[in-house]
Amino acid sequence: MKAIIRIGDGGPEVLRVSEVPAPIPTATQLLVDVHATALNRADLIQRRGGYPPPSGESEILGLEIAGTVAAMGDAVESVSEGDRVFGLVGGGGYASQAIIDYRMAMPIPDGWSFEEAAAVPEVFFTANENIFTLGELSAGETILIHAGGSGVGTAGIQIAHHAGANVFVTAGTSEKIYKCKTLGAIEGINYKTTNFVAEIEHLTDGKGVDVVLDFIGAPYLKRNLSILKTKGRLLQVGLIGGATAEIDLGTLMRHRLKIIGSVMRPQSIDEKIAITQRFIDRWLPELKRGVLQPIIDTVFPFAEVQQAHMYMEANRNFGKIILKVS
Ligand SMILES: NC(=O)c1ccc[n+]([C@@H]2O[C@H](COP(=O)([O-])OP(=O)(O)OC[C@H]3O[C@@H](n4cnc5c(N)ncnc54)[C@H](OP(=O)(O)O)[C@@H]3O)[C@@H](O)[C@H]2O)c1
User: Fold this and answer.
1) Mean pLDDT over each residue of the chain, to the nearest integer
2) Fewer CB within 10 Å: N-end or C-end of the chain?
3) Which residue's alpha carbon is at the smallest distance from atom 35 of ligand 1?
């Protein structure tokens, strides 16, 4: 099969299209002819030699796929060859064939392209697990979503808004902020020109927010805690700005705050099946109805994977970057 391989660790130039052996599905896995996959920030880290795949997963980059079922293991139920499916994978998405556990493969809704389907799993699962399963955001509460124009941010804005929460975002350009508002954000703060702590205080009449969804990490930790209301929740999902910081634990105690961290990739297959099911139950119907949308910035041909990585590294995307495999 065709796959993007890495010739060492480094910049986008280490990525190459090559011929490699196709994976062989186990009893509960599907072999999928991949038509589209998508980039995630984690791919950039893995390309540089960090964020290794969990044991047993493919070394090939790519955390989500959309395609058609080509073959399957003996224990697979309710799936046929030729079915259009999409879902989260532990690795191996940047390839013309990939394997996925059949319990994590979702039927692609009628009328959806493979590109649209590939734009959904990683960011909607991450947003749902953090904002609702862990963060317990409820209607009427207020959330600040950093990097609102990121893939996860664009999914998070939509589902938090749809659940009746008040959504504020930060982003690095006025164009991204404008687009975040079209997805349901009440207000956006350009973190490059404006102090987001002061602005959140202003926007909330000094009350602060119930939940912060953060990808920046160390440089934002103290500031994030300072804008949380009593019983507020900080969801640490990324570390773009660094991992080590110092805080006053007294702040946590006085305001009964929670800091919750999570990473989806290393979780067990049973946990990932449960994550998939929670998304299917709550958000897939809303995506099918068109109330929520996969947000696609650009579709790159498979052979232009280096350009796609450069585009993400330059923070140019609003929503997802897709690789069209075939
Ligand atoms: N824990 C998990 O399971 C999990 C799962 C999926 C994703 N994630 C994490 O979620 C984050 C978003 O992922 P994604 O794939 O959606 O990313 P993405 O589409 O590449 O978006 C990331 C955005 O972050 C902003 N940014 C970059 N550097 C920044 C900085 N120093 N300060 C503030 N903003 C900065 C940029 O937008 P601006 O133009 O606004 O600066 C950039 O476009 C990543 O950190 C990723 O690792 C975690």
Assistant:
1) 98
2) C
3) 147
Cα of 48 from ligand 1 centre, angstroms: 16
Distances (CA, A) of 138 to 132, 210, 282: 8, 9, 14
Phi and psi, residue 290, nearest 5°:
85, 5
Pocket of ligand 1 (CB under 6 A): 40-42, 122-123, 126, 147, 149-152, 171-173, 176, 191, 215-216, 237-238, 240-241, 262-264, 312, 315, 317
DSSP string, 142-189: EEEESSTTSHHHHHHHHHHHHTT-EEEEEESSHHHHHHHHHTT-SEEE
Cα torsion for 200, 204, 207, 213, to the nearest 10°?
-50
* Position 203, amino acid: L
Q: Give per-residue pLDDT as tens, 256-307.
A: 999 999 999 999 999 999 999 999 999 999 999 999 999 999 999 999 999 9
Question: Residue 311: what residue type?
Answer: Y
- The Cα–Cα gap between 13 and 310 comes to 10
Alpha carbon of 319 to ligand 1 centroid (Å): 10
Domains of the chain: 2-120+265-324 (3.90.180.10), 123-261 (3.40.50.720)
What's CA 106's distance to the chain center, in Å? 17
What is the position in ligand 1's atom list of the atom closest to the CA of 152?
A: 16
Which residue's structure tokens are 């805080």?
247
Residue 161, Cβ neighbours under 10 Å: how many? 17
Query: What does the alpha-carbon distance between residue 87 and residue 123 come to, in Å, rounded to a whole number?
Result: 11
